[in-house]
Amino acid sequence: MTLSNLVFFLLFLFHLQGIFAGYVPIDRLRWNMNAAISVYADIPQARSITAMQRHIFVTTQSGSIYYVYPPESGLGDPDRVVQLISGLGISHGIAHHNGNLYFTDRSKVYVVPNILQKIAAKEKIKPEIFINNLPDHGERYHAGKYMRIHGNDMFISVGRPGDVGSDGGGQFGKIIRIDMQTKAMSDYATGLRNSVGMDINNASGRLWFTDNGPDRQGEELPKEEVNEVVTPGSFFGFPYTHGGTPISKNPRSDAVEATLFLPAHVAPLGMVFYRGPMFPDMDGRVLLIAEHGSWARKNPLGYRISMFRFRANGQPEPAKKYEIFIDGWQDPQTGKVWGRPVDVTVDIDGAIYITDDKQGVVYKFYKKYFEPK
């Protein structure tokens, strides 16, 4: 075999193994329903996502905001993916409301009014400051502010610094509610470590959220939490307890216990209650959670989309059974991880979008009779 033939053969093998950039082995993903999954967009270090009637906006670990044109735009890949904003610090939270796009950056919330009109007119995107006084501990660890908007309420999560860090005199480890008309702030949930995913259950009107547990407490403890805010301002136990596990002496007796539990260290990040016509059996009845996966566990765990089933009244099914919705980002034989889900959202047609910051992509999960777009 000549040298040139050998080089060609080796390159061909590398291509088959997915070493070339852009190869995403989605054929390894598994689920148990009549649906399909595709790579919808390539976005480096994709983190949080919001879908506005087939218009997709994504934040990244590197401080950028990307926009993905809908398939009917007629643009081909990669022209459908546009970097709208760059140069931000830690911009993780993103949401839309009344045609406006909102996103966070450490101590600030920005807004771009009438975002789709500006994009259609090819105007330069100039974010305006909406809030400029969010608590900021100055560290990178748990500095990202995640958000959810419901009606006139904007909810912002504020993580603690470090693994079991200080709450800074009540500044950190909580979820803030902001009145979008007056911009008045109030503590909506306290006693948290680092909440990332949030959503409102439409049946109950209550906020639910994930909370990531601390490391170095053992392989199987503490469990990860999903909480429901029944009474605004409630204290959820951290740093004294998490996931039903005592961490330090608790001087308070008013801690609210978590409603749902996930395995320890799976890092539940984004979450969403499924709402949409594409999967009618799930409509209003399923909570989806993106598990980013463990980083310091001896036997890595997570790297999947998990789910809990709910009743029509907005409460979990009595069994509170933890189930897997999509997995396969971790090889079951070798344990090797090739993808890490970060966030999950649902568009108006019921299609589910998932971000993966390891692969740098957005996946689309859809009903098979829909053409992948």
If you had to describe this structure to a student in words, what would you say it looks like?
The protein is mainly beta. It has two helices and 27 strands. The strands form seven sheets. It has a five-stranded mixed sheet with strand order 10-11-12-13-17, with no helix packed on it. A four-stranded antiparallel sheet has the order 1-27-26-25, with no helix packed on it. The chain has a four-stranded antiparallel sheet with strand order 2-3-4-5, with no helix packed on it. A hairpin with a 4-residue loop joins strand 3 and strand 4. The N and C termini lie far apart (43 Å).
Silhouette: globular
Distance between the termini: 43 Å
Provide a count of the helices. Answer: 2
- The helix content is under 10%
Structural class: mainly beta
- Which stretches of 5+ consecutive residues score pLDDT under 50? 3-21
* Strand order within the widest beta sheet: 10-11-12-13-17
Strand content: 35-45%
Say how many strands there are: 27
Give the topology string: H per helix, E per strand: HEEEEEEEEHEEEEEEEEEEEEEEEEEEE
Biggest beta-sheet profile: 5 strands, mixed
